[in-house]
Design goal:
This protein has 3 helices and 10 strands. It has 170 residues and is an alpha+beta fold. The protein starts with 7 loop residues before the first helix and ends with a strand.
Length: 170
């Protein structure tokens, strides 16, 4: 019979447990290191009409840095944007992440301010506005952009743009 000191078997199991814990902690640390190398996604913006909705990350910016005028113009001319059908009798709902709302935001229609800047995460506008010539609408589709500010008035500078196309649903 082999004699082990009292509690010796428990020590062997304890060493194995410690090794497993250290290995697990190392794996978690390595995973976090790999994830930190990834780009952080920009905040989301959502438009909802009736039961349909579309969401998008920033078309331009969205990371908090102020965008230059040339970048804004180029971004507003982007043709590869999501679209949604809008019945003029429906209400169009706009939603932004709290990070965007904290820095203030406004809604642009065809590049022109449609609303005052806001620090709320949610706004509603009647669908008929987006197809009314009085508000600058032309034809059966309208470019709508959510413009995030820098903590001052959103009309002074932009840190991010989220563009969507609203198509008139006849």
């Amino acid at each position: 019979m082999t004699m082990m000191p009292r509690g010796g078997a428990a020590d062997v199991l304890g060493v194995r447990r410690r090794r497993r814990a250290v290995a697990a902690a190392g794996a978690v640390s390595a995973g976090l290191l790999v994830l930190s190398a990834c780009d952080k996604p920009t905040p989301m913006s959502t438009i909802t009409v009736g039961r349909a909705s579309i969401s998008s990350q920033a078309t331009c910016g969205g990371e908090g840095d102020t965008l230059q005028a040339a970048a804004l113009t180029k971004c507003l001319a982007d043709k590869d944007i999501k679209s949604i059908s809008v019945d003029p009798d429906e209400t169009v709902r706009f939603g932004v992440d709290p990070d965007v709302a904290d820095k203030r935001w406004t809604i642009l229609m065809n590049g022109q301010p449609l609303t005052e800047d806001s620090d709320k995460t949610y706004r509603t506008i009647p669908g008929s506005v987006f197809f009314n010539a009085q508000y600058g609408a032309q034809g059966n589709s309208t470019l709508v952009t959510i413009k995030a500010g820098d903590g001052k008035k959103a009309s002074q500078s932009a840190t991010g743009l989220w563009s969507f196309k609203l198509k008139k649903d006849d």
